[in-house]
Please model this.
Amino acid sequence: MKTPVTVTVTGAAGNISYSLLFRIAAGEMLGADQPVILKLLEITPCLDKLKGVVMELQDCAFPLVQEIVATDDPAVAFKDANWCMLVGSVPRKQGMERKDLLGINGKVFVGQGKAIAENAAPDCRVFVVGNPCNTNCLIAALNATGMDKKNFFAMTMLDEYRAKSQLAEKAGVPVSAVTNMTIWGNHSSTQYPDFIHAKINGKPVTEVITDTEWLQGEFIKTVQQRGAAIIAARGASSAASAANAALMTVKNLVTPTAEGDWYSVCSYTDGTKYGLPEGIICSQPTRTNADGTYSIVEGLEIDAFSREKIDASCAELLAEKADVAHLA
Ligand code: NAD
Ligand code: LMR
Model:
């Protein structure tokens, strides 16, 4: 039997976790032969609710689950963690931008970054879902003294799937026909879903969808505003689709990427690629290598239209970074 992997999930009694935990436990994230230890963190007032989630996990009798720990103590939750999935945060309400949550949520990631550095496995990977996820992730990375910032990620897989699904619908093809979809920048309304490098059945999207006005206008706006549209329609932010994207991000990060393709995830910039400023958590085209490390896809040509969009999103990330300078 493989050595169990310890997965810590914060906000474990919340909506996203209710869709996420059962799929991790079933082996959909790390593999059908990979035992897991689940460590679940909640705030004290939600421990009773978390107890109910644990009872349901137990009642599934998942063969891969070796142990379940439920706690309100970050030191206990992050102990020996191999993966920390930081979901626990307040979601935005209608009319808010995600960055309006920085004042409430940002400080949570100071303590969690420190607790991860002090308690988790040294090569632990940290994946932030709680919004605004890029800058929360940066706060955690900057507070996790001694840890490699390359091991910190934030989620734009949901945006990637939204973009693929819009393109597939417009082209009248199954969503699986859409590949090479990059989300650049921030998981916010400035993100840039890059239709120029994306492909449909191996052909450039722009050869298959010739409605440039739609690609440059409605397509981008729909993807940028999809989270807000869901909040308006559902009265609550995306949960099942967010959990799916979270699970698939980790799966992509641990699975060698198919030849020629890539996926979107936000990672720490080193200032050497695509003119992205150094020291932000920025979404970029990424591949997982055969040895389990990851690389940013290099050599994509960035035209003037894309340059303007990418720069605008990076400028927003730099402004968010300046706003939380006191937390790092
Ligand atoms: P939710 O309110 O249903 O659940 C959040 C849970 O986190 C709650 O149970 C809460 O008690 C817990 N929590 C709060 N502070 C905590 C802390 N310090 N430690 C541990 N737990 C804590 O919210 P949700 O719908 O599950 O969404 C969670 C977050 O994910 C929100 O910030 C939301 O905006 C974000 N989100 C991000 C994406 C993305 O694509 N990156 C997608 C969807 C949602
Ligand atoms: C989403 O994109 O659905 C989430 O980030 C939730 C939100 O606030 O939009």
Observations:
- The first helix runs from residue 15 to 25.
